[in-house]
Amino acid sequence: MADAFENILGQPQVRDFLRKSVVRESVTHAYLFTGPAGSNKTLAAYALAQALLCPKGPSGPRGGSCGACQECGRVMRRKHPDVRFYAPAGANGYLIEQVREIMADTALAPIQAKRKVYILDRVDALGTAAANAFLKTLEEPPPGVVLILLGRTREAVLPTIVSRCQVVPFRHIPVAEAAGIVRQNTGASIEQARMAIEACGGSITGAVEFLKAAGNERLAFRTEVLSILESLAVADSWDVVGYVRRLLDMSKAPLDEMRALQEAELAENSDFLAKSALRQVEARHKRQLTAKTREGLRQTTAIVASWLRDVLATRAGTPELVVNTDARDAIEAAAARADEAQLACALAAVGRCNQAIAYNVSPETCLDALLFEVKEVLNGSGRTGQPCP
């Protein structure tokens, strides 16, 4: 059976480095994983956590985790109470209160395993004040605590943070190679693989999960988004409001399944976990639901952005660059109506929507603004000759 590190697709050097670190028992207390979106940093962080918490440890296959025990299963499903994932909670990044909460939590004993792993996403959003509060814990965490920080580039992270971590660089994976990896892991065609990668914001792991979703639920969601985009040019305002509600309902569907699994986990653990430990599990569940909600919204905006780029490519006379080939007719029709400047403004609106979602603005408000902007572009009433807001 392959170990957890085998799933770090497209990053052979990272895979070998982490595996050797576990085998040689040279794992350090703090890592900084740097690389572009879609380079599998988060997956690698969970793979390292799985190897560290597996009871067999370095005795597992090739030094990784066994992949078969209860501990490995919980880490793989991202439900282990001793593996914590954090993302910025404030509009401008991590809050000092959030960092202090993490610091206080590191001092608590593990709930089930012998170690604890903390994964902090987007640490380039760790400001000076929050970073200063975190430095002591980052430099000397309690015994058995491993901190894994994720950032886009080394330069974007504060030097005081970088200097206290083992930096692990992740390479950019070329589109053709990424599509090949997705195809190898799903059996999908290259066209489907490219489409899934675009729908998942460049994430290879996300694309694999997208194509393997039960009952083609994610593919059906993508089809709905494309159908709405095709209809926007002739839609009225009330149509747009209805589209937003429909998208929000569909993006929330996976949350029901997650809630059911969380309730089952609480019922399973309620008899032997202390109240404080149960509160930690409940807090983790809340973070998971928030992350899943944002994932669904980001997938929506990624599909919109992909479609708009296809329209722009067609308008520019490079239809061979179109990714959503199953929507080519609608894309060509849109390209005949909108000009390049308007389409660039619509793509900028996608970026503003993503930023607003990250700042906890109402998803309905974000999608409303985005779809109305795209509608104006597609029906020819966009800001011709005017700069984007």
Q: Summarize this, please?
A:
This protein has 15 helices and five strands. The protein has helices at 12-23, 41-53, 70-76, 96-106, 128-139, 159-162, 175-186, 190-199, 204-212, 217-231, 237-269, 275-315, 328-337, 340-358, 363-378, and strands at 30-34, 83-86, 116-120, 145-151, 166-169. Strands 2-3-4-1-5 form a five-stranded parallel sheet, with helices on one face.
Characterization of the model:
This protein is an alpha/beta fold and 389 residues long. The protein is built from 15 helices and five strands. Helix 5 links the parallel strand 3 and strand 4 (145-151). Helix 7 (175-186) crosses helix 8 (190-199). The radius of gyration is 22 Å and the shape is globular. The model has no long low-confidence stretch (mean pLDDT 86).
Strand content: 5-15%
Overall mean pLDDT stands at 86
Q: What is the percent of helical residues?
A: 55-70%
| C-alpha end-to-end distance | 53 Å
Strand order of the largest sheet: 2-3-4-1-5
Q: Which stretches of 5+ consecutive residues score pLDDT under 50?
A: none
Please provide the count of β strands. Answer: 5
Elements, N to C (H/E)? HEHHEHEHEHEHHHHHHHHH
The largest β sheet comes out as: 5 strands, parallel
Shape descriptor reads globular
What is the gyration radius calculated from CA atoms? 22 Å
User: What is the number of helices?
Assistant: 15
